[in-house]
Amino acid sequence: MVNNGRIRCVGDGSVRSRVARRSFLRATGAGATGVALAGCLGDSDGGDGSVPDTITVGSLGPSDSPLGASIHNSAELAVEEINADGGIAGADVEVSTKDTKDQPSTARDVYKELTTGEDVEATVGIFGSEQLLAIMDDIAQAETVHLTSGAATPEAPALLAEDYEKYRPWFRVGPTNSTFLDDSLVTFASERFDAMGWETVAFIAEDFKWTEPVTDGISQRLSDEANVEVTQVRRVSEGTEDFTPIFEEIENNGVDGVYTALAHIGTTPLVQWAKQQRPFGFGGIHVPTQLPSYYAATEGAAIATFSNTTATPTSEITDKTVPYANAYNEAYDGYPVYSGYSTYDAVYMFKNAVEAAESVATDDVIAELEAASHTGTSGTLEFYGRDQEFPHDVKYGPDLAQGVYFQWQPDEEGNGQQRVIWPDDLQESDYISPPWA
Amino acid sequence: MAGETERLSWGELLNPLTMGPIQQLGLLGVAGLFVVPVVAPPIRTIQLAGALFFATWVMSWDFVSGYTGEISFGHALFFGVGGYPSGMLNLHLGVDPWIAAPLGALTAAIAGLLIGFPSLRVKGPYFSLITLVAPLIVISVFRFSPDLTGGELGLVSVGRVEKLSAIGPIPSPGIDPFAGYYLALAIFLLSAVVFIAITRADAGVVFTAIRADEVALAATGKNPAKFKLFAFVVSALVGGFAGAMYGHSIGGFSPSELLALVVSIEVIIAAILGGMGTITGAAVGGIVFHMLRVALRNADTVSIPFTGIEVELVIPLLGVPLGEIYLLLFGLVTLGFLFFLPEGIVPRAGAEWRRRRSPEGEAVPDGGETAGVLAVHAWLDELRDLLGGDRR
After folding, report:
1. Best of B84, B156, B298, B327 to mutate (most A CBs within 10 Å, chain A)
2. I need a surface site. Which of A262, A268, B71, B83 has the fewest CB within 10 A?
3. pLDDT band, very low/low/confident/very high, at B301 (cuts 50, 70, 90)
4. Half-sphere exposure in the Cβ direction for A320 (13 Å, CA)
5. Which range of residues forms the domain containing residue A288?
6. Do B294 and A209 touch (CB under 8 A)?
7. Same domain, A25 and A130
8. B250 vs A contacts (CB less than 8 Å)
9. Do A32 and A84 share a domain, yes or no?
10. How far is residue A346 from each of residues A86, A335, A361, measured CA to CA in Å?
């Protein structure tokens, strides 16, 4: 028998992975029951620090959405490259993708299938803060390293700050914590609004958990730090289907632009803004407009809208960004969304950690990740320490990961192109006003 | 027939050795459920716990719709109205889940009363429409108060709902998969006993009579309204309790699991497949439906034994993986069942068993049709009346 954590044993008439059973027993926290039930306990297991012949990485995301597809495809792309280059510490790598259906309940079910069922060595992905929060307790229970690459909620690191030991297998590679989003919005405003001619703005946020840290105090900060007048900060509920009255009021207030924090319900206001040709700009954080196919999908309604994002296919944040985006385009006939960049980086960070530790044991990998500094596609990636405000969250800052702002601008053929308008060192173009404004 | 049988003592009734073979098989199935965590892979135990909760909901639907013939298209309302208050009491007021869950069940019982009332005046398809609309109204209200309910994504987007805590030496069912499984099993069995006891008693006869002819029933001095309301309240109470306990077992309450139309439809499909108006059929149908759904979700490929060939499970022409369209598949199978096997699997299997054992058979007064088939016929008759079609 090979002492690699993949030993199979026949204890009760069925054949299955010993490690799967062990992680289950660990999860039950009932050692005594475990011995009675397990049938084939006794010698070594996979937690002893060795590297197995095959390492499986679980990938979680809503398969039907570009955000989830980018996660799954990027995990597969990274793993293909890694296997072609000799694997992780000599081990073959496999990906097991699971569709979360963008539902917390399904996310929870499929996460258990990956950990308890398939006994993967790590999981990456998850789009949506609600989905992430739904599996945090399961991550703690499974004691399997998880690298988030598509949810921005500050509540996940808050759990680590509260109980580090319990939640320590959790890390976030991207996007940056949403408490930094207001920093990002204020910085962008102070560096660009003057040139854009935005002196008076209205702030619209969707009424979801992730926007709470953004809307708390954004009005004051924009006025203090960017010298911008904010006429209103409005939280819009999910059921809102007609934005006409809201836009009417904004227009009557004579604002220059609507600054946004929209993800789940971003498309309706954007399309209505364009159709009604409102005489103000539109952008800020707008997740749908980050999709590379969004300009075509909205038949050009996205024109002149802007958003921050992790990276765009042409932005040379590091020397890995553009090659990754091109490799992705070649493999999947289209460019990735932000969750793709972070997932690709997450798989590589896990690989580096396992190779440095020469082990897949959770605590060995955690120790390596805590000390890591990785140049990825989305910046220089490091994690905050256990005693800091956001333990295991990706560090935010100009020399680390801070993302870019881009704007949809027409090219010569009339197709939309995402062009970077911030920061200075990556800027491809100046902001342009909507054609009708 | 009841008059011919002498009254048996509890001991005689519950002695497995003197039971009929079908009852013995049922007991064997229950015994099997007890040993699942010992023999099955751990992930199956977790999935089966979910199946037991689902089967409890299917039974709660069958109890009211399969027996009285008042077809409810929105039974998920009760699971949600039981679950959500419990989750919100815990989240916003810090009430312990063990106390919050029964309170949630009481809320569901009140909802059962409120939904039951229209059934006294509104009949058949009209009543079904009321039950269809009610959960949609609740979901819409939820979407406009996301601070309290979390909207479409559920309570997880408001804050962390506590799981059921450990009691003495028993570990927390929310954390320990064994405890979680046996809690689900306990709720499932308790509900089954309550439903079976009521439907096999005189009340069950009255329920069936309501479906057959309410006026005739009233003429015997029984009040159909009282019995209908009773059926709704009990069904909602049990369904709501299961909803609350389910939410606190997994630590989340969301419309997609507890309120959505698709949940109501799945419950009906599972009951039809298993056998309407039997409770046991609903229980079996619920468990099988849930486990099949899980299996389909993960069925990307199937390997043909001994050949080593892996076949990708993709629907030809559409290129859609099988797991994506499970509801369509179940819908088609259900249509097939309604045409060719309307009584469902369990009653048919039982009838088949009896036929083989005594081929001569006995004449049955109702033509051998089960409660479920009669319920569907009665509902269709009323629909024909409303639409002005010919009576059968």
Report:
1. B156
2. A268
3. low
4. 14
5. 179-309+403-426
6. no
7. no
8. 105, 108
9. no
10. 18, 18, 17
CATH number at residue B209: 1.10.3470
Inform me whether the pLDDT recorded for B24 exceeds 80: yes
**Mean pLDDT across the stretch B327-340?**
84
State whether residue B144 sits within 8 Å of chain A by CB. yes
Verify whether the Cβ–Cβ distance A134 to B42 is below 8 Å. no
Beta carbons of A282 and A257 less than 8 angstroms apart? yes
Q: Is residue A249 part of a domain?
A: yes
Q: Which of residues 346-375 of A touch B (CB under 8 A)?
A: none
Say yes or no: A129 contacts chain B, CB-CB below 8 A: yes
Residue B122: predicted pLDDT? 80
- The reply to whether A268 and A187 lie within a common domain is yes
Ranking A138-152, B231-245, B262-276, B306-320 by mean pLDDT, the lowest is B306-320
CB A196 within 8 A of CB A431: yes
- The rounded mean pLDDT for chain B is 84
Residue A119 lies in a domain: yes
pTM: 0.82
The answer to the question of residue A287 being in a domain is yes
- B392 found inside a domain: no
Higher pLDDT, A287 or A42: A287
Positive or negative, the CA dihedral A46, A52, A54, A57 is: positive
pLDDT at residue A163 is higher than 60: yes
Q: What is the pLDDT of residues A380-397, one digit of tens each?
A: 999 999 999 999 999 999
Number of domains in chain A: 3
Beta strands in A152-256, from DSSP E residues, in sequence order: 170-172, 200-206, 229-236
Q: Does residue A223 form part of some domain?
A: yes
Q: A150-154, A358-362, B276-280, B328-332: which has the highest mean pLDDT?
A: A358-362
Locus of tokens 């809208």 = A305
CA distance A178 to A390: 11
Q: Domain for residue B11, yes or no? A: no
The helix/strand/coil state of B123 is: coil
Same domain, A411 and A304: yes
Contacts of B177 in chain A (CB under 8 A): 24, 27-28, 116
pLDDT, tens digit, for every residue of A249-265? 999 999 999 999 998 88
The closest CB to that of A33, out of B47, B158, B178, belongs to B178
- At B162, list the tokens: 């506590």
CB contact under 8 A, B252 and A104: yes
Residues of chain A positioned with their CB less than 8 A from the CB of B152? 238
For residues A323 and A300, membership in a common domain is answered with: no
Q: Do A103 and B254 touch (CB under 8 A)?
A: yes
B200 vs A351, higher pLDDT: A351
On whether residue B147 sits in a domain, the answer given is yes
> Residue A24 and residue B42: Cβ atoms within 8 Å?
yes
Q: Which residues of A touch B178 (CB under 8 A)?
A: 28, 30, 33
pLDDT, tens digit, 9 for 90 and up, residues B373-382: 777 777 777 7
Q: Does A264 lie in the same domain as A352?
A: no
Upper half-sphere CA count for residue A176 (Cβ side, 13 Å) = 28
The DSSP secondary-structure symbol of A388 reads S
How sure is the predictor about B322, in pLDDT bands with cuts at 50, 70 and 90? low
Higher pLDDT pick, A222 / B315:
A222
Helix axes B42-61, B76-93, angle to 10 degrees: 120
CB A429 within 8 A of CB A416: no
At B26-82, the pLDDT tens digits run 889 999 999 999 998 888 999 999 999 999 999 999 999 998 888 899 999 999 999
The answer to whether residues A199 and A300 belong to one domain is yes
CA distance A235 to A243: 12
Domain boundaries, position B256:
21-299+310-387
Residue B100 lies in a domain: yes
How many Å apart are CA B196 and CA B201, to the nearest integer?
8
Query: Amino acid identity of A278?
Result: R
Q: CATH number, domain at A128?
A: 3.40.50.2300
A194, A274: one domain: yes
For chain A, the average pLDDT equals 87
